[in-house]
Write a structure and sequence with these properties.
mainly alpha, about 50% helix
């Protein structure tokens, strides 16, 4: 059994990947805060959560399997590793509470709050990943060490 076969690690890696992509979308929103006609966007988390639910429940194991993502050609490709660059999450329009006269719907305060929320969720997932690795190491260590 490899690390990529353990559901908790698959789920956490996939969650962290989605949150990283969300940070990119939010950064793009902030960068375009003064662009006329720009509509704020966000990642559609409902389809992502549905896929994670199916993967963790074991339904459609091969169809909805969460794979290790390879984001750089120098990374080691494991069994079932996909290309992180080609993995894309569905981006949806999510206008903020106000729209300016020039049609821009980005409110910097709301975007910064979303960035902070995403950072906290990423840190929580990374912490869970680290704790899970520690538990796995503890289970594999010899008694008394």
């Amino acid at each position: 059994m490899s690390m990529s076969d353990i559901t908790i690690f698959q789920t956490l890696r996939s969650t962290m990947s989605m949150l990283g992509e969300r940070q990119k979308v939010l950064a793009r929103n902030i960068a375009n805060a003064d662009t006329p006609g720009f509509a704020a966007q966000d990642i559609d988390e409902s389809s992502f959560q549905k896929m994670l639910g199916q993967a963790s429940a074991g339904r459609g194991r091969s169809a909805s399997r969460v794979n290790l993502q390879v984001t750089d050609s120098a990374h080691i490709r494991g069994a079932g590793a996909g290309n992180g660059a080609s993995k894309s999450y569905k981006t949806v329009l999510r206008p903020d509470s106000e729209t300016t006269l020039n049609g821009n719907s980005v409110v910097l305060e709301e975007q910064v709050m979303r960035v902070a929320e995403t950072r906290m969720r990423y840190e929580a997932a990374a912490g869970l990943y680290e704790k899970s690795m520690g538990l796995l190491r503890l289970a594999l260590s010899r008694p008394g060490r």
